[in-house]
Every structure is written in C-alpha cells, then in structure tokens.
Design goal:
Blueprint (H helix, E strand, L loop, with lengths): L1 E5 L2 E5 L2 H10 L8 E5 L1 H9 L1 H8 L3 E4 L2 H9 L10 H11 L10 E6 L2 H14 L4 E6 L8 H13 L4 E5 L4 H8 L7 E4 L3 H6 L7 H5 L3 H8 L1 H27 L2
Helix pairs in contact: 1-5, 2-3, 2-12, 11-12
Length: 253
C-alpha cells in the first residue's frame, strides 16, 4: 500500500475493502503486529507527543479514521483514498470471517471496554454474523496494572489462540498497549476505540448522512459535550491551522 505522511503520521492509502481483505490475507505474516486507526484528534496528539507518534508509526498499518484525513490524502495526490472507521472495519472483517466466507474459522478476541459492553457484544455478534468465532473477551481494570496482572492478561489472551485481537482501550492507551505487546501474540491486534460500544448497541453512531458530511464528531459532541468539547476544539483547530503548511512542506521534499 502507498503511504501519505500527514503531520508526521504515516497513513496508508487504502479503502475499507482493501484494508479488511489485507487483514484476512496477511494475518499469518502479520501475527504479533498491530493496526492503528488514526483520526484528527489522535493525529494532533501524535504531532505533539513523540512517543505517541512512534506508537502510530510502528503499526503495520495506520489507517485514516476520519474524513478530514482522507480529504487531505486526496489533496496530496491520492484521489481514491477512503476512510476506514473502526466500526466499519469491524463490520467488514466480521462479515468476511462468518460462515461461508473466505475468512471463515478465524478467531476473534475482544480486549477492553467494560464487562457489560463485552457481554452485549458477545450476545449480539453471532446473530448478525452467523458462524463468527469469539475466542474470548476481557475487560481490564480501569487503573494501572501490576506486572503480574499484565502477565496474567497476556497468558489468557495467548491461551485463547485468537487470530484477531480487537483492542478497545481508547487513545492513547490502546496504541501504547499494542506497541508494548508487539511480537507477543500469534494474532494481529487492531485498535478500534469506541467500536465495541457501537457493535454492542450501548452507544448510537451518527446517521450515515452526518458521517458522509464529516460531521460524526459533531454527533458525538452532542452526546458527550462536557467530555469532548475541549478535545475537539483543540484538535480540530490545530489540525486546520497546521495541515496546509504541512502539505506544502511535504511537496517540497
């Protein structure tokens, strides 16, 4: 896949179908690696934090999870670039690993979120994706873990022998966790943030028209204004102020 560097992050230029096919086709050689889905907020975080930038760029694939990122890719000479959102990628991979599909038999593991969300997820997915194999799920404590706890978690995940490990810890925690566990598991890790909640039905996703109009962030802001207002104001403003200058700089290289 081609890559497009935006504010220091090396984004893959791809489509949802290509990315989901890549995961299934390359799961063996990519075992132990991880995939990051990066949006405007996490791009700005990476720009401001060298350690987090390393976590984004060490991923085997860093996918554009946001229309502004894809728009910027297109402005930089990649007209066919498409957004790869977490819930959409999960849906595509779930479909392709259900009964009768090319990825049938692949085992899924879910790490992160709350016990209630994981329970709902495990109840709903088999009905929507017949034949999907859920190897296990684990909700870690919402605090720093001891070395012993980390080791026990690694042992539980490894014992389940998953092909795909979905990680829903939120940014930057999930990317840092995946980087620390790079090369440990025999499955490929994929960080999908709130994707667990949307597939479990515990959170509603923005209507399709808002997604297409790059307004999914506004829908989420209306749902959680107190938590997200400061984040979105800073991230969106910083991205808009810096991305044009960054584009010109990349063109001169």
């Amino acid at each position: 896949m081609n890559t497009c560097r935006i504010l220091g992050v090396h984004f893959c230029v791809t489509t949802l179908e290509e990315a989901s096919d890549w995961i299934i086709m390359h799961r063996r050689e990519a075992a132990g690696e991880y995939i990051s889905l990066c949006n405007v907020h996490t791009t700005v975080m990476a720009m401001e934090d060298p350690d987090y930038l390393e976590a984004e760029n060490r991923a085997v694939l860093t996918l554009p999870d946001g229309k502004p990122i894809v728009t910027e890719e297109r402005k930089r000479g990649f007209p066919d670039a498409e957004r790869t959102g977490g819930p959409d990628l999960m849906d595509a991979v779930f479909r392709k690993t259900s009964k009768g599909q090319k990825g049938e038999g692949l085992r899924h593991y879910f790490y992160g979120s709350s016990p209630e969300v994981l329970q709902a997820l495990q109840e709903k997915l088999p009905g929507k994706y017949p034949g999907i194999i859920i190897a296990g799920a684990l909700s870690p404590p919402f605090r720093a873990l001891s070395a012993k706890e980390e080791e026990e978690i690694r042992e539980k995940i490894s014992a389940a022998a998953p092909d795909i490990i979905w990680v829903g810890l939120g940014a930057p925690k999930q990317e840092q966790w995946m980087l620390r566990h790079r090369g440990i598991f025999n499955g490929i890790m994929i960080g999908v943030g709130a994707g667990f909640d949307f597939h479990a039905g515990t959170k509603k996703r923005a209507p399709v028209w808002m997604q297409r109009a790059s307004l999914e962030w506004l829908y989420r802001l209306m749902q959680e204004p107190r938590r997200l207002f400061g984040r979105y104001f800073h991230s969106n403003t910083s991205f808009l102020l810096k991305v044009g200058k960054d584009r010109r700089k990349e063109r001169t290289k």
